[in-house]
């Protein structure tokens, strides 16, 4: 599955288990290290900001918010 498909499905399967969240964040951090060519103790947070990437919790929050808004609007349109 590609990331966009996983992201879309995340509103349904959003993680609550801390160890899984840490595993996914570690993958994201490793990708940031690779993309930004970080070494040693270089800041992942600074690199994430420079690359304009969101954190996993931020992406999940926005996704849930968007799905709730879409659901609300769809119900409103159907009941007009």
Description:
The chain is mainly α and 80 residues long. It has one domain (3-78). Helix content is 75%, strand content 0%. Helix 1 packs across helix 4. It is elongated and about 60 Å long. The mean pLDDT is 82.
Secondary structure elements and their pairing?
Elements: H1 3-13, H2 18-36, H3 44-50, H4 56-78
Helix pairs in contact: 1-4
Question: What is the subunit arrangement here?
Answer: single chain
Count of beta strands:
0
Low-confidence residue ranges = none
Number of domains: 1
Give the topology string: H per helix, E per strand: HHHH
Task: Characterize this entry briefly.
The protein is mainly α and 80 residues long.
List keywords for this structure.
80 residues; mainly alpha
